[in-house]
Amino acid sequence: MRHIGTDIKAGARRLLKMPDKDGRLLNGITRRWMFSNIFVFAIIIVLFVSVFAVSIYGYYYTSVQNGLETKAQTATDFFAAYITKTYAEYYDSAYQYATDFEDADTIELQFINTSGKVVVSSYSTPAGTAPGTPDVELALNRGEISVWQGRDRNTGERIVSVSAPMIYTTGDVIGIMRYATSLRLVDHEVMVNSMTVGAGGVVLMLLIVLTNMFFLNSVVRPVRDMTSTAQRIAEGSYGVQIPKDYKYKDEIAELVDAINEMSLKISQAERTQTEFISSVSHELRTPLTAITGWAETLSYDPGLDSDARRGVSIMLKESQRLTKMVEELLDFTRMQDGRFTLNVEPLDVGAELEDAIVGYGELLRQEDIMVEYVPYDGDLPLISGDGARLRQVFLNLMDNAAKYGRAGKRIVVSLTCSESDLVISIRDYGPGIPEDELEKVKEKFYKGKSKERGSGIGLAVCDEIVKYHGGALVLRNAPDGGLIAEVRLPLPETK
Question: Percentage of residues in the chain with pLDDT exceeding 90?
């Protein structure tokens, strides 16, 4: 039966390795999903928008540049093919061409001499001005079309310019036909298109986030319910069910069904265990009473030799130990099925504690264990409680202190009072309890690494009795060795 209880608790704890009560790990699931899924989509969208912006930038600027190059090539080819007159006439023709240029509202046409200075312009650039851009120098030196893009040093405006050499019949470069246009409209168009695509990417990202949040909620909400139910199972609410109001029949629904079935089976196992313990305990009470009675009778027989008297003493001691164990098991089964009640009345806790010490002190002295009692220095208020049950708690805690702290040969019992609690402290000077077992030792049938005999139920019964009184049983290791068991009982509220 001990293993059944331990396995139940272990199974519940394994479930609790899922998200905790306040959802911190659930938030971790959401974050991981967002970073591993949404983050990938965000990167893809950003890359797409960036590639689109670069592509449209290249498309527009390449189109403008190619258009200017075509115009420049056409004009210089025309001059080379049809204007074969003298230098003066050649210059006059170029001047007239620039003056009558049809696209002067969007493109500036300049005729530049071999010194790199403007002779005539379709715009307002004064004659004699040097553009000072690399394309002019390259066209003059290399005799081929050159392109430049940057800020005009006179206006500060971003432009693209194309300089095409004008080659006379002798093969000499006699000037430059330079086309320049502002990139302001092109920049605006690129920005508008990029922002439009970027806005579309943001809308798409929002849609992805919303759909993913909807999906996550459909996963996280059942997991949160499962976590809450698993926590309740671990705390002893066996049989509790997760509500099955989810419209999807998927793996989560199967997990919900499995946990619900597990909860029912744990409840059935717990009920079977409780019924078995109760039944066996009741069956043991009658023969144990008979054994104890006959052992006590035989112990008074003057005809027994020393060996027989020693055997009867052992039999009496063991029967009393088993009787105590049976009583604890019965008490705990009554607590489990709700049949445990308290005889509540105004109670002097100090008097009850002193009676327990006097009653148990002689037995401790026989085992060479000294009991020190530090009473409260003042008047103790009465509390509502069951004196017999609290004495049971005090005796059980002193018995544990004597059993597990026997090596210390000393037990200190003290009573203190605060504004809200009465605190009964029972301390031994033994080895204490490993920190990872402090909370577990109050669970039924848990004995930890101790080699001492016992049912593993005594502290569980004490804990339940103290809870019935609205208090708490606190176990902690003393800094200089030993275990301190504190019973904290609430004082009545003063009006």
Answer: 8
Q: What is the three-state SS of the chain? A: CHHHHHHHHHHHHHHCCCCCCCCHHHHHHHHHHHHHHHHHHHHHHHHHHHHHHHHHHHHHHHHHHHHHHHHHHHHHHHHHHHCCCCHHHHHHHHHHHHHCCCCCCCCEEEEECCCCCEEEECCCCCCCCCCCCHHHHHHHHHCCCEEEEEECCCCCCEEEEEEEEEECCCCCEEEEEEEEEECHHHHHHHHHHHHHHHHHHHHHHHHHHHHHHHHHHHHHHHHHHHHHHHHHHHCCCCCCCCCCCCCCCCHHHHHHHHHHHHHHHHHHHHHHHHHHHHHHHHHHHHHHHHHHHHHHHHHCCCCCCHHHHHHHHHHHHHHHHHHHHHHHHHHHHHHHCCCCCCCCEEECHHHHHHHHHHHHHHHHHHCCCEEEEECCCCCCCCEEECHHHHHHHHHHHHHHHHHHCHHHCEEEEEEEECCCEEEEEEEECCCCCCHHHCCHHHCCCCCCCCCCCCCCCHHHHHHHHHHHCCCEEEEEECCCCCEEEEEEEECCCCC
State how far the Cα of 1 lies from the Cα of 271, in Å rounded to an integer. Answer: 12
Question: In sequence order, what are the residues at sequence separation of 6 or more whose Cβ sits closer than 8 angstroms to the Cβ of residue 90?
Answer: 79, 83, 166, 168, 174
Structure-token pair, residue 89: 């006439």
As given in the structure block, the two tokens for residue 271 are 């009920």
pLDDT in tens, 475-489: 999 888 889 999 999
**pLDDT band at residue 82, thresholds of 50, 70 and 90?**
low
More confident position, 491 or 222: 491
- Given a contact cutoff of 8 angstroms between Cβ atoms, the answer to whether 145 and 139 are in contact is yes
pTM of the entire structure? 0.48
Over residues 364-381, mean pLDDT: 86
Which segment of 14-23, 216-225, 349-358, 479-488 scores lowest on mean pLDDT? 14-23
